[in-house]
Amino acid sequence: MSFAKVVVAAAWVLAIVSLASPQASSLVWTGRGLFWFLLLAHAVECLVFLPRLRRAEGSLATHLLKTMIFGVFYVRDLHG
Asked: How many distinct structural domains can be found in the chain?
């Protein structure tokens, strides 16, 4: 896994963990903002790259899921 994918995955983990953490209210709000930003940005990437994802070998559902997690860093490594 590339460094960029590790960073994006870590951002998702931070966002989800901070959503579940009742301790620090500022961390929760930061996590919520990060979560919604990542969700929206990666959903847009799914729409933009949908033709490429459809052309690629393998399951479209898997390609969409990985694009939702890693975004453009997954799509740029995708062959097809």
From this structure: 1
